[in-house]
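Supplementary Methods S3. Input chains for the assembly prediction are listed below.
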Amino acid sequence: MQPNSDTRSKQVNVWCDLVLEYFKANKNYILDVNEAQTSPLFCNSAINRKLSTDGIVLILLELEKRGNLEWQDKQKSRCLVMWRTPSEWGKLVYKWAVDSGLANSVCTLYEIHSGADTTSEEFSNIEPWMLKKTILALQSEGKAEYIHGINPDDSDAGVKFFT
Amino acid sequence: MSLVVQIIEICLATRDRNGGLMSFDELRKRVLATSGKTRQGCQDDLARAIKKLHLLGSGFAVITAGSHRLVQSVPGELSMDHSTVFQKAEATSYTSLEILMKDLGWTEQRARATLDHLVAEGMAWVDQQDNSGTVLYWFPGLFSDGS
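Predicted structure tokens for the full assembly:
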């Protein structure tokens, strides 16, 4: 990591962007910190350079601050990397809902991620667990309410949008 | 858009990467790219525009290091020693304490002071992973990839 603080800020920003791009391109979400140290993301064998473990941890903590990362265990050995945060997805979903006249009505999460009415939307085919986080984010903003389904895996969950 | 404004915008846009130091050629390429057409006599126009900026006391200057010209766009104290380091580094975009001491005959103190200043100005990035075990100092302002 760079000693000059302005340079280090730039360095951190560039790494954060790279990590998010990498996960977006690989359509992957899980990062295991131990495996990460030798992955091509942080280890460039062509130029024989890698990001130190301390550096990797710094980048992950920065991503957590920005809302792009959630730890999956107390030991912070595995995390979820979200190239778009639930609240960013929330903006897109909420706009679609309002534009589609769904304010104050209910629809299922299934209709949103896999329905015929959303095929041209960016969130079409979004992972169900990401959509759930998105709706919960909207819920905390008072824009929607998450409605639990009957199935054990909540695959029939729904949402009510508010104006 | 006036050339002076173009130059300022390009330097501002690249400042946090190269610390306000860019090769004259790199600046010329970027100006040509933004203006979208070839400019005859561009080098002279560019040199004149930078001189105008310099006269305004804005921290712009052209540094000549041997046959190489560099554009500095932040006020700061750059000495002959700093220019010499840029000249040494221009071919590879990097240098090290050892290179400066060996090739220029500098004392360790002089080499270290020069390099530390350039790191503090944000013009040099520190690389401690070279196989040789030496610490390398890279100058993004000297990269020629246009990015």
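The longest helix of chain A spans residues 5-26. The CA atoms of residues 33 and 76 of chain A lie 8 Å apart.
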